[in-house]
Each structure stands twice: as C-alpha cells, then as structure tokens.
Amino acid sequence: METSRMPLLWTHTSSNSKFLKARNYEDLKVELMFRGVKEEDVPVTTTKRKDLLKTLEGERMVMEGMHPDDAFKLKTFKKQSRAPFSLLA
C-alpha cells in the first residue's frame, strides 16, 4: 500500500504524535476531575497526572474488593469519564 493512500491514523508523524499527546494530556485532566480532583489540584505534568490516576484507580479497585497489593500494581484503569483517550499514534 502506498504511504499516500494509508489512513492518517496509521501514519506516524511528529505533528500527529504531538496532537495526541496534547489531547491525552487534557483527557487525563478530565478523568481526574471526574474522579473528584479539583481543577487547581490537577498535576501539571503528564507523568504526575498518570501517577495520580494510578493511585485513584488502585483505591477504587480496593473499594471493589481487590487486595491492595494487586490493586496498586495495575498498569491500566477503567475509564470513568467521557474523555476519549485516543491512544493511536
């Protein structure tokens, strides 16, 4: 298949990657606020936003009956908000 005929989502360009990172950055904010974090308390960096989301997800899983050791080892989370989280790059 010619590169020019490939769907845009399949091609990896730096501008596309930057767009997705910016959108996912905002999606993390939406998810954190949905989970009760005040806007002024949302971390500035993507890494800190992800870390806080991991903590909140671990707490949620413990409340649902998962053992804390297992809950806080999770590397994924169940989306609670309507943030799209487009992870295609």
Tell me, briefly, the overall form.
globular
**Record field, number of beta strands:** 0
Q: What gap, in angstroms, lies between the N and C termini? A: 19 Å
Largest sheet: none
Low-confidence stretches: 1-13
What number is the mean pLDDT? 81
- Quaternary organization: single chain
Counting helices, strands and paired strands, the structural category is mainly alpha
Helix proportion: 40-55%
Helix-strand topology string: HHH
- Beta-strand proportion: under 5%
Helix segment count?
Answer: 3
- What is the alpha-carbon Rg in Å? 16 Å
Note down, in words, how this protein is organized.
Helices cover 48% and strands 0% of the residues. The protein is mostly helical and 89 residues long. It has a domain at 15-71. Helix 1 packs across helix 2 (46-63). Residues 1-13 have low confidence and may be disordered.
Give descriptors for this structure:
mainly alpha, 89 residues, single chain
Topology:
Elements: H1 14-34, H2 46-63, H3 68-71
Short description:
The protein has 89 residues and is an all-alpha fold.
